[in-house]
């Protein structure tokens, strides 16, 4: 085995096909998109090279609202990291303690992750539906009918309602990742802590959380990247509306590319989203300085 | 035993790998197949005595629902064409509406457009024509081929003074009114703006939402601003503004937007209309929950379909209410926007052009009989039963003094989004009529 690994030529031969494939489907399209982003082009006519003017236009707003989209996705990223992941962590800590019905809880929290996003979207459309929707119906049933409102139709509530669904859907996903990390910690550590008289909160704070920090980092990264490139649920729920209130960079990019035929500007937005994700990933890696523990 | 198992597993893995490699290779084909709702090869019968050369035409359209009026009429027209032209093989590729828009744009930008394709006139096909991808159809047709075509209806397919495609039907926007609900409420079906506002007040007093609109699909809300501006500015002035020849910063355009502002202020619409799609809004009308809906003539077919509608024969079609003393009370929102074009890259442009002329003329008649639109070719419907609601719409439109298509089809590119956003902002009471006009004017500067 060592001989094989020492042979650089052999390594190259084995890795090259995968690398070639990876380049063709990831790197080349990104570079090509980068090239398109310097053009003024509607997809049919002759293209004109305009340098970085698309990037300037991208931030000079109306009616594209790109900066507002970035702010919206920033809010979502904040919610994901500071609400979604902590909630998932609490759930994971609780159900990994071997409570009754552990399997049932684990499965039911994970169900939203399995269901197709489109189905989730349709489900919540029915909940938020202003006339016969469950939410308004329940508010009326408990005597709070003054709180009834057209949730997704109002520019004041649409963003919060959409983000609530996105955050809710993936709690189960992060919970499962954290849960499996907790389960991989040797039982003897917990037992030793208990013998020393540690309470549950102390065990969580001083043993469990430090030991699953690498997994928390993974979750935070996923949550961040996921919220920066979120598209599907927003598209199903509001299509970025009403009046662009729930627009995020991806929905704007979709509109500019597909309905407005502006390939240059759309590509510039795509490049921005890629760069944004890369930069924030590096940022998170730096923020979580973790050591690897071996048991 | 284990060895065998191992070999078997290895074999399966190889198999999976092979499939995935093949799968990647033919992704394009499989995607194409996925998009195809229906593919049919219409081959001529063998032993045909025709002396003409064998020709194959690729035809793309978007009538994927077999019950759709235009789908039925296209199938009939195609059947007629086949029997008359046994040497021509037609390959049909049908794709659903939204997907079709993307598909045809992609095909044209990749220089792979089919011989004949369905498209929308005015702004949508402007880029295709500008890119030189569409054949000027009159160059490939005999002189008398278009003598039955109502040329004024074809203006949405006229680019740079040339005719590039042929329409088969036109649509008009009318106010559908549920007469039964009006009678029950003791309100007159509105002919004038004052009567409309009186009706709105009366229905609101009874807890009924007067007008149903699915403003989540912005074009629904846009119809009201567009047609109101037809009343205040007329079709000619609107067209000039849309062509960027005159300014929107004029009283006529502000007044048009003001009508929408007034309607919203009078609670004419569902307060949650911005969360409703066209389909949801339509259901409210077909279920007799709301008495009024302003929509294109295409809705008539569904209104009169007992399987979809509970308001069959209870609905009258009215022209959008008139303004007292207005000069544009008999002009309409609508026009011939659906049509077929021939691709410049087609190898058989003459056959394709003749096919387009043949099909659009025949479809004009059949689609009309299906209640899908107003014919734009002179047709003979003697002895055929025409639905009374469709007949009402035809009668309204024959007296028309002018048409303008919906603004979102007239404009193109990002202008469409700007326009729709502005209308939604007016709809949500976030912008005044003056701000709307100023916003539109930014498109012309």
Question: Could you explain the architecture of this structure?
Answer:
The complex is a heterodimer of chains A (295) and B (445). In chain A, 71% of the residues lie in helices and 1% in strands. Chain A has helices at residues 2-6, 8-36, 53-58, 66-95, 102-114, 117-128, 134-141, 158-183, 187-195, 200-211, 213-228, 232-237, 249-259, 263-287, and strands at residues 39-40, 48-49. Chain A is flat. Chain B has 445 residues and is an alpha+beta fold. Chain B has 16 helices and 14 strands. Chain B has helices at residues 2-25, 27-35, 69-84, 97-109, 123-130, 179-185, 193-205, 218-242, 251-265, 278-286, 299-303, 349-369, 388-398, 407-410, 414-427, 433-441, and strands at residues 38-42, 55-61, 88-94, 116-120, 158-159, 162-163, 165-167, 169-178, 292-296, 315-318, 331-335, 338-342, 374-375, 402-404. In chain B, α8 (218-242) packs antiparallel against α9 (251-265) and α15 (414-427) packs antiparallel against α16 (433-441). Chain B is globular and about 70 Å long. Residues 21-51 of chain B have low confidence and may be disordered.
Offer a few descriptive terms:
heterodimer; A: 295 residues; mainly alpha; two-stranded antiparallel sheet; 2 strands; 71% helix; flat; B: 445 residues; alpha+beta; 6-stranded mixed beta sheet; 16 helices; 14 strands
What's a quick, concise take on this entry?
The complex is a heterodimer of chains A (295) and B (445). Chain A is mostly helical. Chain A is built from 14 helices and 2 strands, in the order ααββαααααααααααα.
Give the ordered list of helices and strands of chain B.
HHEEHEHEHEEEEHHHHHEHEEEHEHEHHH
Query: What is the straight-line distance between the termini of chain A?
Result: 27 Å
Order of helices and strands of chain A: HHEEHHHHHHHHHHHH
**Overall pLDDT of chain B:** 85
Helix content of chain A: over 70%
Biggest sheet: strand arrangement of chain B: 1-3-2-4-12-7
Low-confidence stretches of chain A: none
Main pleated-sheet profile of chain B: 6 strands, mixed
Poorly predicted sequence stretches spanning 5 or more consecutive residues of chain B: 21-51
Helix/strand structural class of chain B: alpha+beta
Number of strands of chain B: 14
Distance between the termini of chain B: 80 Å
Rg calculated over all Cα atoms of chain B = 25 Å
Oligomer: heterodimer
Number of helices of chain B: 16
Largest interface: A-B, 30 and 32 residues
Q: What is the strand arrangement across the widest sheet of chain A?
A: 1-2
| Biggest beta sheet attributes of chain A | 2 strands, antiparallel
Principal-axis shape of chain B equals: globular
User: Beta-strand level of the residues of chain B, as a percent range?
Assistant: 5-15%
Average pLDDT metric of chain A: 87
């Amino acid at each position: 085995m060592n001989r094989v690994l020492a042979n650089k030529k052999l390594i190259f031969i084995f890795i090259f096909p995968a690398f070639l494939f990876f380049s063709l489907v990831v790197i080349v399209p990104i570079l090509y998109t980068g090239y398109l982003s310097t053009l003024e082009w509607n997809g049919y006519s002759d293209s004109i090279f305009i340098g970085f003017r698309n990037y300037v236009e991208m931030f000079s707003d109306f009616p594209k609202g790109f900066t507002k989209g970035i702010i919206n996705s920033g809010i979502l990223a904040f919610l994901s990291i500071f609400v979604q992941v902590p909630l998932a962590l609490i759930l994971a800590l609780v159900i990994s303690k071997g409570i009754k019905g552990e399997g049932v809880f684990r499965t039911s929290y994970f169900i939203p992750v399995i269901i197709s996003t489109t189905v989730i979207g349709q489900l919540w459309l029915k909940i938020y539906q202003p006339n016969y929707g469950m939410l308004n119906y329940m508010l009326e049933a408990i005597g709070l009918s003054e709180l009834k409102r057209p949730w997704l139709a109002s520019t004041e509530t649409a963003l919060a309602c959409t983000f609530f669904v996105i955050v809710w859907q993936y709690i189960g996903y992060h919970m499962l990742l954290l849960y499996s990390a907790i389960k991989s910690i040797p039982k003897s550590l917990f037992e030793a802590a208990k013998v020393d008289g540690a309470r549950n909160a102390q065990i969580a704070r001083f043993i469990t959380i430090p030991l699953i920090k690498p997994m928390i980092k993974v979750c935070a990264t996923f949550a961040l990247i996921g919220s920066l490139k979120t598209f599907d649920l927003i598209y199903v729920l509001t299509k970025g509306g009403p009046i662009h209130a729930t627009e995020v960079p991806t929905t704007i990019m979709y509109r500019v590319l597909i309905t407005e035929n502006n390939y240059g500007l759309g590509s510039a937005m795509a490049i921005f989203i890629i760069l944004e994700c890369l930069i924030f990933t590096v940022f998170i890696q730096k923020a979580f300085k973790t050591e690897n523990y071996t048991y | 035993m284990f060895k065998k198992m191992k070999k078997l597993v290895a074999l399966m893995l190889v198999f999976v790998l092979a499939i995935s490699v093949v799968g990647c290779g033919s992704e394009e084909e499989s995607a194409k197949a996925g998009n195809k709702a229906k593919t049919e090869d219409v081959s001529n019968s063998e032993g045909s005595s025709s002396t003409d050369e064998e020709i194959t035409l690729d035809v793309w359209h978007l009538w994927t629902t077999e019950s759709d009026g235009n789908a039925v009429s296209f199938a009939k027209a195609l059947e007629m064409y086949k029997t008359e032209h046994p040497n021509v093989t037609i390959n049909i590729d049908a794709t659903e509406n939204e997907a079709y828009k993307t598909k045809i744009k992609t095909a044209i930008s990749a220089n792979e457009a089919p011989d004949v394709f369905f498209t929308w006139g005015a702004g949508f096909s402007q880029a295709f024509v500008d890119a030189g991808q569409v054949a000027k159809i009159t160059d490939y047709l005999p002189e008398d081929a278009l003598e039955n075509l109502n040329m004024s209806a074809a203006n949405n397919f006229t680019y740079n003074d040339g005719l590039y495609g042929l329409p088969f039907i036109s649509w008009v926007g009318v106010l559908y009114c549920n007469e039964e609900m009006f009678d029950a409420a003791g309100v007159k079906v509105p002919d004038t703006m004052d009567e409309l506002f009186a009706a709105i007040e009366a229905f609101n007093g009874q807890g009924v939402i007067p007008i149903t609109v699915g403003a989540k699909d912005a074009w629904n809300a846009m119809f009201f601003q567009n047609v109101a501006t037809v009343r205040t500015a007329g079709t000619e002035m609107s067209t000039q503004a849309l062509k960027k020849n005159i300014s929107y910063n004029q009283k006529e355009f502000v007044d048009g937007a003001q009508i929408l502002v007034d309607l919203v202020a009078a609670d004419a619409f569902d307060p949650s209309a911005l969360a409703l799609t066209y389909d949801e809004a339509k259901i409210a009308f077909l279920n007799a929950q709301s008495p009024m809906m302003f929509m294109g003539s295409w809705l008539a077919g569904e209104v009169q379909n007992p399987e979809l509608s509970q308001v069959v024969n209870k609905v009258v079609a009215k022209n959008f209410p008139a303004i007292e003393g207005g000069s544009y009370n008999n002009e309409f929102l609508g026009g011939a926007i659906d049509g077929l074009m021939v691709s410049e890259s087609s190898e058989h442009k003459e056959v394709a052009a003749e096919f387009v002329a043949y099909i659009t003329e025949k479809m004009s008649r059949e689609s009309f009989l299906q209640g899908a639109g107003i014919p734009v070719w002179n047709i003979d419907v003697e002895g055929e039963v025409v639905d009374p609601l469709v007949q009402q719409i035809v009668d309204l439109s024959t007296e028309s003094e002018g048409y303008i298509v919906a603004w979102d089809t007239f404009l193109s590119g990002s202008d469409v989004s700007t326009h729709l956003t502005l209308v939604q902002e007016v709809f949500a009471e976030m912008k005044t009529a003056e701000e709307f006009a100023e916003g539109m004017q930014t498109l012309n500067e």
